[in-house]
């Protein structure tokens, strides 16, 4: 049978390797910029300031207020800082929160971005921005959102706590798993998704036992790049809609929510598209949802929405919100189906499919 598909490659520059972050200054100059605003979360303030020091005269200043789910008011504060220091680009150092802030600034100003990821979020290689305002998280896709340069330096992830390494890795896996059944999937995205899942499945158990294993850190970061790339290349479905609902409306932690929901949403969709999810079953063993649940348990990931702080009384509203303006999904659903799925995730039941 003749294949028919459309594939568009990412124009982002990817720089990967131990010590690669030392090249950030040269990349600022290659972008034709002279005044970089360094972004970080409050937790990584010292790291952001150290990076600004290394940039020397190329650093215009720092902003260390990045927050989970990219609140619009934080973006506005960062844009004020960028204007005050006459920044002509942003350098985002950290995980998904910092990357999201840089993307939100670029979306509004078209300032060039350099991202130096220190987690496995994967959002740094997508033209997608998720932002929260008035308790509602929405997403937007635009070419301006895609960072121009991403520098992956495994040495910067050595200190990433194991709990965060695990949930961040499972967050990345969610991108790849949903890419396997995306409406606009293609042979290249499927290959990258499968390879990304394999890399993270191999790396995370090693990191649980040897957090400073640099080879495993590199494998995990490589997997995160692949998973993030497919997130930017094809559409997402039910899993991401539910996670955006739980994060934006109930302020659940981003990576942990992906980690808990992944076995349940993939198990739900495996009923409709078992052949498309066969790579998940092959990599993790058993059924797609059951295999992912077993793997998550083996690396110490959270397994219930209850332990993330979601109350039983919130489940009805979560199901209602998640089924409003739904994303395309390979299996049809209604509010009752999503309510049952959320109940299973709240209790931590192992998916059968």
TrEMBL record:
Residues of the Fe-containing alcohol dehydrogenase-like C-terminal domain: 166-346
UniProt keyword annotations, A-Z: NAD, Oxidoreductase
InterPro entries recorded: ADH_Fe/GldA, ADH_Fe_C, Alcohol_dehydrogenase_Fe, MAR
A GO MF term: metal ion binding
Domain of life: Bacteria
The keyword NAD belongs to this UniProt entry's keyword annotation: yes
UniProt keyword annotation of Ligase present: no
Record-annotated Alcohol dehydrogenase iron-type/glycerol dehydrogenase GldA domain positions: 11-154
Residue ranges of the TM segments: none
Matches recorded under CDD domains: MAR
Membership in a protein family: Belongs to the iron-containing alcohol dehydrogenase family.
Name of the featured protein: Maleylacetate reductase
Protein species of origin: Mesorhizobium loti R88b
